[in-house]
Amino acid sequence: MKKLLFLLMLGCFVISCNEKKKEQDAPSEDPNLEIHEKIAMANGFKEFDSISELKFTFNVKVNDTLRSERQWVWNLKSDKISLTEKDSTMSYTKKDSLAKEKEYIDQRFVNDSYWLLFPYQLEWSDAEISEAKTAKAPISGEEMQMLTVSYPSEGGYTPGDSYDIYFDDDYMIQEWVYKASGGGREMATTWEDYEDFNGVKISKMHKSGDGSFELFFTNISVEE
Fold it and tell me: Is residue 64 within 8 Å of 207, Cβ to Cβ?
């Protein structure tokens, strides 16, 4: 009888621990969070604060031709950012005021890191975010949750741009559509090949529907 009671108590303890672990592993399920916050949290937003250095290579391939290859090192403690491109390395420190000659690096870093860490931009930026609704994703044709992220018409390198993002039940982005300001060009790509780097979840591959365009990340390193 005592043995049976012990086993029952042990079983309850294990179940309790498992439930607590599920709660810790799924911060995006917090009912107090808004949808865009759940997306950021699902991608490891809380873990990002513990990072000291982030390295990655941004690549763009069009019709099997590599058009861009930029290697980045971002020291998050000092905000020093280094770019290696075509055997040349340039660095700058991200500040409110930026020297004109450093804008070349900053503009590319903003673009490349935006693709890398877009879920976090939902927390960092001053974008206007719509209510979520159900919509058909542009590439897969699947029904998903969708919301629109719109940027102000002034400020930044590409003011007025917007993004329709399509995400699954785990709040992970699966596809998006970039819309240039003023009713300009649109581009839809996938979000796939996710990998967890010390809690930071990154989609390493983005493809157009016909596969002619690929934007992908290599040499990713996340140091705590």
Answer: no
